[in-house]
Amino acid sequence: MKIAAHKQYIKRALASLLGVALSTPVTAGVNTEPGVINATSVAALTLTIGATMDFGTIVAIGNSAPEIDGSGSLAGGTAANQAASAFIAMDLAGNLAVGQGTSTGRINNLSATGTPGTFSVGNGANNVPVRFTSTAMLDFDSTSASIVIDGPGAGTDPFTFTDLILCTSACPVASNPSISDGYTGTVWGVTDGSGNVSVTTAGRLYTTTLGTDGEVYGDGLYSGVYSLTVSY
Amino acid sequence: MNYQIGLSLKILSLSLLLSGQNALATDTENGTVEVTVNASITIDEITQMNFGSFFMTGNIQSGGETEGGGAIGIVRQENDSAWLQLNWDGTVTPNDGTTAKAAVLAGGSSVGVFNISLAAFNTTVKISATEVLDVDSTAGVQPVTGPGPNLHVLNFTDLEIDTDGLDTAQNDITDVDGDSQTVVGTTDGGGLLTIRTIGRLYSTDLTADNLPYDTGAYLGGYTLNISY
Question: A interface mutation test: which of B7, B33, B38 has the most A CBs within 10 A?
Fold first, then answer.
């Protein structure tokens, strides 16, 4: 469709050009000066992290072997796919909710609220759609990727993070598309008149099977990294 | 010649115009996810265990009377001592020993109460103490010491723990293999659990046969450990 339009445009332009050019020799003393056209493509969209996503303070007990660890939500729904895991979910307003595992997995939330993550996009074209992608994105099938959230010290007990939700407008309502046919991992936003857009992020943490059935997660700060990509 | 120059410029301008739509830009940023785990369970004593007011005489030293110890195989090992049993309703039952005597004044006694909090929801927790009555609680006897200058001593042991509020001990008395010293309870939907404690005080050999225990407050301690 674009190629056809392109060709049509060229045809019209050439016709116009030929018309002008053919008439040129008729007029004596006319000089032709080539014009210069300059354009600078600024394609460097920037994505900058603001707040760290923080689920607050919890007490947690791991699953029992061989229970299946929770993973991201399945196609056709946004519900936690917890299998045997307990989970803690944060919405984009920082509200926290827990779900308990089927056997030993437990999470007790000790914090009133959590802190959603924030990012800012800059250097974008004005008022244009941009898309955000992440392997952990909740879009009705986020089972493909879980981010390991490790505790302090070597070989510590991990949680998994997935079901990433974003709001790019009308926050705290998630902007994740309501699709039911599988995983796309894409959320759209629109830059403002200055080429900027702000993003808020949240998601779910799941317990995993630890070394001993019903083992308690050790004290300390657990941390992990997820990637978010912005593009046109 | 002029035709060719004009044609070239037009095509160039079209090329720039169309290729501008194909400019792509991507940036990826890593975000951090954090959560803090606090596995420490809180246990607070709400009510101290109190045996109220009593009268008691000590064992006969010269007679070699054996002092009471913790139960063995659920059977109380009061031996030759007199003893006080704190009951779930807060009353105290006195019992004479071989020669030692015991009596109580009604009132003023209370069951020990502890609150467990900040635990995982609906989860089994273990309460342990060296004085716990299970099958053999002789291992842990805590001195309950009176005022000076004589510092007469009672022995506290046979600790029973009620974790369901039904006035029955959840001590693992069926553990016939020995001293497990562990009682289990289950937290509620808010990670809370209230437990109650009772036990026994035994008379000991004092500095003289059949010596009455000195008047005054007797104080001792016992330690509860809570874990998953």
Answer: B33
Q: Which residues contact B114 (CB under 8 A, 6 or more apart)?
A: B43, B44, B45, B46, B194, B195, B196, B197, B224
B28 contact residues in A (CB cutoff 8 A): 47, 227-230
CA B71 to chain centre: 20
Q: Domain locations in chain B?
A: 40-206
Residue appearing with tokens 């060296």? B130
pLDDT tens, position by position, B174-204: 655 455 678 889 999 888 999 999 999 999 9
Sign of CA dihedral A62, A68, A72, A76: negative
Q: What is the average per-residue pLDDT within B126-146?
A: 79
What are the structure tokens assigned to B170, written together?
Answer: 């959840």
Calpha distance A23→B63 (Å, rounded): 141
Q: How many CB atoms lie within 10 A of CB A9?
A: 13
Which of A46, A48, A216 is nearest residue B39 as measured by Cβ atoms? A216
Axis crossing angle, helix A2-23 with helix B2-19, rounded to the nearest 10: 150
Instruction: Determine, for residues A159 and B35 on separate chains, whether the beta-carbon distance falls below 8 Å.
Output: yes
Q: Which pLDDT does position A142 carry in this prediction?
A: 65
Q: Are B226 and B45 in contact (CB under 8 A)?
A: no
Nearest residue in A to B41, CA atom: A59
- Please count the helices (runs of H) and the strands (runs of E) in chain B: 1, 15
Among residues B101, B92, B97, the alpha carbon closest in space to that of B67 is found at B97
Residue in A9, A40, A52, A108 to test binding to B, most B beta-carbons within 10 Å: A108
The answer for A 14-73 residues in CB contact with B (under 8 A) is 14, 17-18, 20-22, 24-25, 32, 34-35, 37, 39, 41, 43-49, 52-61
Residues of B in contact with A108 (CB under 8 A): 118-121, 191
| Res B148: pLDDT | 84
Question: What confidence score (pLDDT) does residue A183 get?
Answer: 63
Contact across the interface for A119 and B123, Cβ inside 8 Å:
no
Classify the C-alpha dihedral B132-B137-B140-B142 as positive or negative. positive
**What's residue B175's pLDDT?**
54
